Design the sequence.
């Protein structure tokens, strides 16, 4: 797709991020690395945003399933939305990784209608989370589709 940039390597995964989006990286105290992309001209609340979090889980220790991780993160997300609820979860193969994809919607902190998708996969000792969010209006729909195309470009 012409609106995606060239592949970039993030941890063990390649992704073609949306062309022209600004990337930020944050290292969490839990060993996670979070990558976020935002449009340069849509800063702040309501901005279409794409986030990837890679959490390194301890080797040799039983960890939660993809389904448990998905439910926990969705519940946390829904606590930040007013009248938040989620749609049905489906399984999506993305670059050979099996993700759970769940739609969510509600009102953001500024009371604007928001929606998005959460993708969750477990790959060995890595948990991968993608969050795509947007304020529901006509101006953000095309970019929201580009962000989902970026998620679908992930390869190991």
Sequence:
């Amino acid at each position: 797709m012409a609106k995606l940039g060239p592949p970039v390597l993030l941890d063990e995964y390649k992704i073609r991020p949306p062309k022209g989006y600004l990337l930020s990286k944050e290292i969490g105290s839990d060993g996670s690395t979070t990558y976020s992309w935002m449009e340069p001209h849509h800063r702040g609340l309501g901005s279409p945003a794409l986030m990837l979090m890679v959490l390194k889980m301890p080797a040799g220790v039983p960890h939660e399933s993809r389904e448990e991780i998905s439910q926990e993160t969705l519940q946390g997300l829904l606590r930040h939305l007013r009248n938040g609820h989620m749609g049905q979860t489906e399984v999506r193969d993305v670059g050979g990784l099996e993700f759970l994809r769940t739609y969510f919607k509600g009102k953001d902190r500024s009371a604007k209608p928001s929606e998005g998708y959460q993708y969750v996969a477990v790959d060995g000792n890595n948990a991968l989370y993608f969050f795509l969010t947007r304020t529901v209006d006509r101006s953000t729909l095309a970019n929201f589709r580009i962000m989902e195309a970026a998620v679908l470009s992930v390869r190991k």
